[in-house]
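sry for the spam today, last one i promise. struct tokens for design, 465 residues
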């Protein structure tokens, strides 16, 4: 049986020139890949500004991300591009600074425990459904915007105990789209040893977009931070203890010092952006895949309705819905939100048959590994049933890392999976999703994998069961 293969940039037959590499990658790093990228175990590219080593070998990936992770800190290439938005947050720092931040943040995530977060996810999802209910049947809708809104609303409520207003959500979506488009244009000149080629317009655009998002967050943080510093109070609405309150109460385990205001903004910005952008990306592609394969969508609908039997969704309902889980797992495989993980070699080291020099950039690509021709059967096909097959177990074990791996694995992975289940199951229970004739989403790889032309779907309300 053949399965639907969603469109993705056609790999080039062979390597292009350095200048073609530069101009193609300015739009999307997916445009730079060639056929051998999906077969090789390890490759290398030497640019004027950096030596790049692409690692697809599972043993080497484990070495870089898990076993010897301290020898491969985060690369400044990505960190410098993200710093205007995320500052010196746990996402961009290394070494003792990262360790201190991680230890201070861990207790705060008690507020993101799955049982605590479930009512927030459910309420934000119900609010999304009410917005969609107001649309005429068959309205053409960019589902990417809706997924960004609902995931931003969920993490906003989890951090601040407040719902995100529609106007703010749309501002964030537009601002982050501008920030994403600018990021490769800032990173590539450094890779080519030509920082002078960065246009002032791209720098301004990136900083302006980052400032707009951080300004929205600072407006919520400052009054509560000042209240906390003044009299120890700084809880959310109705005295709730949310993630912001927990962050303000966090103390350095060695010095007992709290986060400063700027540090607090950095960590909240990281959590807010990482907590919604990656989920929104994966959910958007999951909706598109379900719309393109109606028989799978109908099976998901049947699974959800059989589980709920006409009642409201509860947390214990999620685990038995295995097909719905598998649809999202397959969306994460085909369109991992973060397509490249970049590390730096802290010292000279052997890897396979190569000697990687100190300072070289090590690229681990979930996009390539999860579509690798050696590890996956029908690697470009959408087949959620593969997760019920014994042959897939080994692929999952060594070639599936949508949330990264090792000490820096995504701290919110379980949160994101539950969130996706709540949203997908609720959406498919209420609506039938259909593709818009002639519309084909065009995946682009920037900070996350999004569609260059949006993801337009038609939504039809299902009869009440």
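last one done:
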């Amino acid at each position: 049986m053949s399965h639907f293969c969603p469109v993705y940039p056609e790999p080039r037959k062979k390597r292009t020139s350095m200048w073609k590499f530069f101009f193609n990658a300015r739009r999307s790093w997916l445009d730079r890949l060639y056929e051998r990228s999906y077969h090789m175990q390890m490759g290398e590219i030497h640019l004027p500004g950096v030596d790049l080593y692409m690692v697809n070998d599972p043993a080497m990936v484990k070495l870089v991300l898990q076993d010897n992770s301290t020898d491969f800190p985060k690369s400044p290439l990505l960190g410098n591009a993200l710093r205007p938005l995320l500052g010196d947050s746990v996402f961009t720092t290394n070494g003792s600074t990262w360790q201190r931040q991680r230890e201070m943040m861990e207790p705060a995530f008690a507020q993101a425990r799955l049982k605590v977060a479930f009512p927030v996810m459910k309420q934000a999802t119900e609010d999304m459904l009410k917005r969609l209910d107001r649309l005429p049947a068959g309205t053409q809708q960019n589902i990417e915007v809706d997924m960004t809104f609902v995931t931003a609303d969920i993490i906003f409520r989890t951090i601040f105990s407040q719902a995100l207003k529609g106007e703010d959500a749309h501002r964030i979506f537009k601002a982050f789209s501008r920030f994403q488009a600018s990021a490769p244009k800032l990173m590539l000149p450094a890779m080519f040893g030509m920082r002078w080629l960065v246009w002032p317009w791209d720098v301004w655009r990136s900083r302006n977009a980052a400032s707009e998002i951080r300004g929205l967050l600072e407006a919520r943080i400052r009054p509560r931070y000042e209240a906390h510093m003044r009299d120890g109070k700084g809880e959310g609405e109705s005295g709730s203890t949310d993630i912001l309150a927990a962050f303000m109460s966090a103390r350095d385990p060695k010095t007992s010092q709290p986060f400063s205001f700027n540090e607090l903004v950095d960590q909240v910005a990281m959590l807010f952006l990482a907590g919604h952008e990656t989920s929104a990306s994966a959910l958007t592609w999951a909706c598109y895949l379900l719309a393109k394969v109606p028989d799978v969508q109908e099976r998901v609908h049947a699974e959800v309705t059989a589980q709920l039997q006409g009642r409201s969704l509860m947390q214990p309902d999620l685990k038995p819905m295995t097909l719905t889980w598998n649809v999202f797992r397959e969306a994460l495989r085909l369109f991992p939100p973060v397509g490249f993980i970049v590390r730096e070699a802290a010292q000279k080291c052997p890897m396979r048959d190569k000697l990687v020099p100190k300072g070289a950039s090590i690229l681990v690509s979930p996009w390539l590994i999860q579509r690798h021709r050696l590890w996956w059967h029908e690697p470009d096909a959408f087949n959620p049933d593969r997760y019920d097959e014994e042959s897939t177990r080994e692929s999952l074990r060594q070639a599936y890392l949508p949330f990264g791996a090792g000490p820096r694995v995504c701290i919110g992975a379980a949160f994101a999976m539950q969130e996706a289940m709540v949203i997908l199951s609720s959406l498919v229970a209420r609506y039938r999703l259909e593709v818009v004739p002639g519309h084909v989403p065009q995946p682009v790889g920037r900070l996350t994998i999004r569609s260059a032309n949006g993801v337009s779907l038609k939504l039809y309300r299902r009869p009440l069961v």
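The mean pLDDT is 87. ok im logging off now
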